[in-house]
Design goal:
alpha/beta; about 400 residues; 14 helices; four-stranded mixed β-sheet
């Protein structure tokens, strides 16, 4: 597990004294906590000469490591915690069955993810999202399993915690999990995505100035709202969404069985070869992470107007068998009106076009408008040239996997 893991009874960090206390947790074990302690209390308990024996550090530092953990780095005190389990050779059948349930056909990818969490804790990873509209799926058990492994290096946040400006309680954690995620506002999603790929973060506490520190946090979200737990767009590449099925035979002792096998599982992870090649800064590629659940989440965030407009543009491209087509905003409003989508305002339409990454051409530019004439009762394709601030819609974007005949 590395060296230098034993903590002294007291430390001085900067000008403040702390006591190392082993606090009992819910599982009957203890978790090490640094508790602020006054200089006078130490003198009262141990005498003034004892102060000379207390290790002194310039400041805190956070350096995650599970295979070569060190409590101190030069003059700095590592606030990352050693793991409570030591790897030990053995079998882990309950963990294998459980992880196959969680990751399904992506089981090997799931093992790669957990291997990276353990052997490369500073590696940026995608936001893992476990969803299901059913109960008894094992999502909460998965979080408790990880909590047992990473202990005080993992925290469970609420939706309110995720939105709060005060982040000092989770800024140094390796895993930040949310069990009942419901973050539908766009700003929630943008903040989460930004954090998931950040190398540094400004930590903030009440009454204390902000300070910038390295950030190594990985986010795991769980939710019973599979279609709209968080805002996403069609181009999103940072989420890995797994639809977790119901456990058919509930075992009330499952978590205890999983925890008992953790030493053997860590022994397996520390020597395991990662199967997925590092393709992006989040290691995995978008193709690796694609699932029907991710696609459903993307579609669940699209408004009715946006869905209708996308389909209408697709139909126009296919009808006229062209590589691209142009519309002004007025043309698009008329297109929606003809399709009986009437409650659309110009501002809403502009937001959709901006979301799609489209910008209008300058005034005076000309474009072709396609329409169908009826000659002797037969439909005939026709076009006319108009001018205006038009947008260009390509077949690749709105009718992919189709070819011009």
């Amino acid at each position: 597990m590395g060296k230098d893991t034993k903590s002294p009874d007291y430390v001085r960090v900067g000008t403040q004294y702390f006591k190392n206390a082993n606090c009992p947790n819910g599982e009957g074990k203890t978790i090490e906590r640094l508790i602020p302690w006054s200089r006078q209390a130490i003198v009262d308990d141990h005498g003034r000469d004892y102060l000379k024996e207390i290790p002194k550090f310039t400041d805190f530092i956070c350096r995650p490591s599970h295979l070569d953990y060190q409590r101190k780095y030069g003059e700095f005190y590592n606030c990352y915690h050693p793991l409570p389990f030591y790897p030990k050779q053995g079998d882990w059948p309950a963990i294998a069955v459980f992880l196959k349930h969680i990751f399904g056909e992506q089981y090997t990818l799931g093992l790669d993810y957990l291997t990276l969490l353990y052997v490369r804790p500073t590696q940026i990873l995608p936001i893992l999202v476990l969803v299901s509209s059913e109960r008894n799926t094992g999502k909460s058990t998965f979080l408790e399993f990880l909590k047992a492994i990473f202990e005080d290096n993992m925290t469970l946040n609420s939706n309110e915690n995720s939105r709060s400006q005060f982040n000092s309680d989770w800024a140094t954690k390796s895993i930040i999990a949310n069990e009942e995620t419901l973050l539908r506002k766009r700003e929630d999603s943008e903040r989460l995505k930004s954090l998931s790929t950040s190398y540094r973060i400004k930590t903030e506490s009440k009454g204390i100035d902000k300070r910038e520190i390295p950030f190594f946090g990985k986010f795991i979200l769980c939710s019973n709202n599979p279609d709209d737990l968080i805002y996403t767009d069609q181009e999103e590449i940072r989420y890995w969404v797994r639809d977790v099925p119901t456990i058919q035979e509930v075992d009330p002792n499952l978590l205890n069985k999983l925890i008992a096998e953790i030493p053997a599982f860590l022994f397996f992870l520390q020597d395991r070869e990662i199967c997925s090649a590092a393709k992006t800064r989040m290691w995995f590629s978008p193709d690796d992470l694609w699932t029907p659940a991710l696609q459903r989440l993307k579609e669940g965030n699209i408004s009715t107007v946006e869905k209708e407009l996308r389909e209408l543009i697709r139909e126009e491209l296919l009808t006229y068998n062209i590589a691209e087509i142009c519309f002004t905003r007025k043309d698009l409003l008329n297109l929606l009106k003809d399709a009986n989508v009437r409650s659309v305002i110009t501002h809403q339409l502009k937001e959709i076009l901006t979301k799609w990454g489209l910008q209008p051409r300058d005034n005076g530019s000309t474009y072709k408008q396609y329409f169908i004439d009826y000659t002797d009762g037969q439909p005939v394709q026709n076009s006319r040239t108009l001018s205006g601030r038009y947008y260009t819609f390509s077949r690749d974007q709105f009718a992919p996997n189709t070819s011009i005949s």
